[in-house]
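Because discrete structure vocabularies remain unfamiliar, we turn briefly to a single example record, giving the amino acid sequence and backbone structure tokens:
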Amino acid sequence: MIILVTVGSTRFDMLVQAVDRQSGEMKEDGHELVFQIGHGRYLPSGGRFFRFRDDMGPLYQKADVAITHGGVGTIFEALEAGCAVVGVDNPDLQEGHQAELLEALDDEGVIVWCRDLGRIPELVKTALDLPSYSPPKSNLALEIVKVLEGKGGGGN
């Protein structure tokens, strides 16, 4: 089983270092680790690593779990590829939007929000037990087609 650790285009050494420190425990559970470290200074020794890729999609498709920063694009790309997700908010980003997103998705049972970097192996196991992600169903496209065809649409 593959665990993909990804920090996006920023630097999030705290996450990479925490996962690297606990990589032995995850390897004992049969996991292989792959780290995407962005602009980070810390170079992990517990698995293969790289800085950037043009297309992360194939890596998400191969991975069983993504341990990721709280970026909305990254999280949903991983979920849509079938990865379980452990999300970690990056405290170096001032906006606080990552924590809000992670809390909401955790409350919905879509991901596992990691609030304690010392619990990564345990949270990986929890994430693997979550049901597969199903995007919300939307009829918006059908409604637009109806309006364009003159067959519906409220608010005239």
